[in-house]
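Lecture 7 notes: from sequence to structure.

We start with a single chain of 247 residues. Read the sequence below before looking at the structure.
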Amino acid sequence: MIKKFEIKSHDGPGRIGKIDGELTPKIFFKDELKIAPSEGSAHNIDREIAEFNVNETLRLARENVDSYDIAVIQGSKYIDLRVKCLKELEEIGYNGFIIANCDALLTNPKELVDVIVSLKKEAKKTDYFIFSFTEVSFMPILTYMGIDGFLADSANYYSHLNVLQTPTKSYDLNAYPIYENISQKELEEKNLENMEFVIREIHAHMKNRSLRNLVEERSGTTPQNISTLKILDRNYMDYLLEYTQLF
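Now the structure, written as tokens:
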């Protein structure tokens, strides 16, 4: 059974919504989600393999639609396959989607922007999108583009790498011993706390129609972050302006 997603307000393409009584954007915990099985693949692979994996993902999603309410959008680096996957998953009956290969997308700002905007333009308004992997400093711009939530697994992933995630920077604790003798569990908790703080920060800015200000502030934190914003502004201004309030 699909979960009803209600849109409460917009700040640019970003939106405050509600799922199961909880406001989005939000942190999603994988063990609380009913994610349909899918056929995963690497991001940079031959089209024939990516197409096979999309078809397998659709088959698995169709066979399991009565047991799950969230599906995974596969398609690797091929945007048309990503869109095909989305549209056919919608037809099967899903409205919650996890975007696959997000770790690879974060290293290529143009592909990141192209994939998200292309999916959002084709999606139904009642669809909601979950980013499967993120650095905390990227959360504002991802929300600005229309992402509705983030998997908490990111906190665990970075703790394995001994990396502290903060709202503005990622710290390799081997090189920057901000916390000495911190356990992996404690580091995961700190990373999750910072994810939750940025969610609160995002909500506050969206309520004040100032999400763009937060996005611009964070754009200088990494080269990838500023490149993402520049590409978004240059190539998709019509998409940004569609929901931007004019004063």
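The chain is about 45% helix and 15% strand. Keep this in mind for problem set 3.
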